[in-house]
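Shape is hard to put into words, and the shape of a protein is harder than most. The fold becomes a row of whole numbers, each drawn from a learned catalogue of backbone shapes. The outcome of that step, for a single protein, is printed below.
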Amino acid sequence: MAKQPMLKFVTVARQMPEKRPAELRAQDFHEIYREFADAKAAEQAGRCSQCGVPYCQSHCPLHNNIPDWLRLTAEGRLQEAYELSQATNTFPEICGRICPQDRLCEGNCVIEQSGHGTVTIGSVEKYLTDLAWEKGWVLPIRPQAERTESVGIIGAGPGGLAAADVLRRRGVQVTVYDRYDRAGGLLTYGIPGFKLEKNVVMQRVEQLEQAGVQFVMNCYVGVDLSFDAIRGRHDAVLIATGVYKSRDLEVPGTDASGVVAALDYLTASNRKSFGDEVAAFDSGALNAAGKRVVVIGGGDTAMDCLRTAIRQGAISVKCLYRRDRANMPGSQREVQNAEEEGVEFVWLSAPVGFSGGGDALEGVQVQRMRLTAPDASGRQTPELIEGSDYVEPADIAIMALGFEPEPLPSLWGVPDLAVTRWGTVKADFRSHATNLPGVYAAGDIVRGASLVVWVIRDGREAAEAILDYLAQPSAVAAE
């Protein structure tokens, strides 16, 4: 009888891929985890308990069939494992790298709850897809039949690209419009290379280009091309712009030259990794080298800024967050990585202003906080401790407080496009249809700033809804 390949969690300890030493990885922007070897991937996949109710799958926004492709990996059936993993996920190699697995699939693993340590799902997923690219298992997109209908997608981020993939596989003609010079959205310009090397994103973009997806880059809708013109060119339109407007602090001194937005800072760094000329980086305005850096915020974007500043050669890097470690929104795994690399976290602290001579930043005025007793929902509210103010010296203060939607109706000249009171596009949560006929919306522009995996799910769902719309004889005829 063949040896049981699964249920090894009692005898085999959880093990992540080898992590590059902090002192070495802090000197470059390469990914910090090495690849699993075949045997190690099979061993770790074999720890899966194959439980009857797979909470890992139900807590994955894409509902990936995780137990089955873990079993196939443990059995050495790697191509089948890859094919199953990509059946529900357009970009498994990206999710395997940047999903906060500790809050999703791995955080809800049954053996994790029983104290044996979670299965390293994300690392196995990354391993499978990287192997698939290496072995040629990632096949070109070739529709069985071409269709005459066309769809315009505004936004080349993960939601727009996921929708383009689904639509193009079904033969629909797809054009993607984006304001940037490269596709990928935040995958390209918002997430640093040490979490997601850019060739991983570019190979997916190239796959879509080779499949016939047309990309119109450097295109500002409402300036270079009107929204109505895009609607006139296509049978349906998907809005997948994401949210890019940075949240601001309403405190004195935010106009100082050293106070910068997180996305501006990360975009400059990522552009340099492509070899681009970036004047704001070269002048030092968006370069942390030799400077004291303070990052304000506690989410994953803040973690990206902190760890980028370390790699740029900052003298010191500190994170100010108004709650404690247990209540921060960012991945605990990312916090650990940042601490290993030399980041100092200043918990229960909030900026109340910025100080400096002239317009140059010299420090962040900080006030200590404490958490109140839990309310009825169990949530603790931070409150200021009177008389606890102090100044944190800083040459650059990076605002990583999250993102808000841009006012699309006014920017695009479409006042009839319905939005919520938060400014997000109002769309049906099942079909992703907006109030405008043939216009759909998906991703962060609908749900607010979220995770890439949710955006991929939205893009795939919206594409299926658009296919249903195109199948209605009256829909295309009415265009």
Q: What stands out?
A: The chain has a mean pLDDT of 93.
